[in-house]
């Protein structure tokens, strides 16, 4: 095996599903005097536990150092890449190992050369008790807002949401899908799904999450009480449909409104994020 493929410690990264950012997979290692580290990026893996299983396989593969070039006659043409074979020879103790065909070639004299690498069922076994829990992710302290530092802050704001558009409406209800959200304070929340019935058709409502009671609340627009309280998370401003199924009249969002990646009324244009000074196009 080439020296750069031998290792006793394997590290890697996966994509953290809530933040859409690379995060470290807990290191898989075998105790040894000299550390030889291998590193793998797993850009299509969104589970830290699946990432550990993959790294454990790479670690065991890095310990299986035997590589063999095995000549055969024309009968070797029946063997395919990725086949598992065993060598019928007592030399060097090779008959005690299973090998996987990594490649093969046909020579001018119609002999076949097989490239073999060591394999075995133990490379694919995994003990669930060996999972390692990921370390806590650091949370950046948000910068102080520009303005009066003594002024009380209002409702918490959603800066990212998965899924990005969790609220749908009918003539008399709002339906909220379960979602993971990131707040402007750096905190993350997992919000449950719920349907809020008995609402007035063709009316704009403001949807909040009460951090004290851990329940959704709605308030007719403009909802000045809850918007001014840090005990609430502002989710979205959404209009119920008219009785004929059409969206309510769509007006420009008032200054400081928006948020959460939801829809503004029935218009499929993402709302502006909540902010003291609305960006262009939000007023």
What would you say this structure looks like, in words?
- With 283 residues, the chain is mainly beta.
- It has three domains: 62 residues, Phage tail proteins - 2 layer sandwich fold, CATH 3.30.1920; 57 residues; 115 residues, no CATH class.
- It is built from two helices and 18 strands.
- Strands 12-11-8-16-14-15 form a six-stranded mixed β-sheet, with no helix packed on it. Strands 4-7-6-5 form a four-stranded antiparallel β-sheet, with no helix packed on it. It has a three-stranded mixed β-sheet with strand order 2-1-3.
- A hairpin with a 4-residue loop joins strand 11 and strand 12.
- The C terminus is likely disordered.
Question: So how many helices?
Answer: 2
Main beta-sheet strand count, sense and barrel state? 6 strands, mixed
**Major beta sheet, strand line-up:** 12-11-8-16-14-15
Shape: elongated
Number of strands: 18
Low-confidence stretches: 251-283
- First-residue to last-residue Cα separation: 65 Å
Beta-sheet strand percentage? 35-45%
**Rg calculated over all Cα atoms:** 30 Å
Summarize the amount of helix as a percent range. Answer: under 10%
Total of domains: 3
**What's the overall average pLDDT, rounded?**
79
């Amino acid at each position: 095996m080439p020296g750069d493929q031998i290792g006793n410690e394997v590290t890697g990264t996966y994509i953290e599903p809530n933040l859409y950012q690379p995060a470290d997979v807990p290191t898989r290692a075998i105790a040894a005097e000299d550390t030889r580290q291998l590193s793998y990026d797993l850009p299509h893996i969104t589970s830290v536990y699946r990432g550990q299983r993959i790294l454990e396989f790479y670690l065991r593969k890095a310990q299986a150092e035997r590589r063999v070039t095995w000549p055969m006659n024309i009968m070797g043409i029946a063997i395919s890449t990725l086949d598992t074979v065993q060598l019928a020879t007592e030399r060097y103790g090779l008959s005690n190992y299973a090998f996987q065909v990594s490649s093969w070639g046909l020579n001018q004299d119609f002999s076949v050369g097989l490239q073999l690498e060591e394999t075995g069922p133990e490379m694919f076994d995994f003990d669930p008790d060996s999972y390692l829990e990921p370390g806590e992710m650091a949370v950046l302290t948000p910068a102080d807002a520009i303005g009066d530092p003594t002024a009380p802050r209002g409702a918490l704001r959603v800066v990212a949401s998965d899924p990005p558009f969790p609220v749908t409406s009918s003539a008399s209800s709002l339906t909220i899908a379960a979602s993971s959200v990131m707040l402007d304070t750096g905190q993350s929340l997992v919000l449950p799904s719920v349907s809020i019935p008995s609402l007035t058709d063709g009316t704009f409502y403001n949807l909040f999450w009460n951090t004290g009671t851990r329940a959704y609340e709605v308030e007719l627009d403009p909802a000045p009480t809850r918007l001014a309280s840090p005990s609430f998370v502002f989710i979205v401003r959404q209009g119920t449909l008219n009785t004929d199924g059409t969206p309510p009249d769509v007006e420009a969002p008032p200054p400081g409104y928006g948020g959460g990646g939801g829809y503004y009324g029935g218009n499929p244009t993402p709302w502006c994020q909540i902010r003291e000074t609305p960006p262009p196009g939000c007023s």
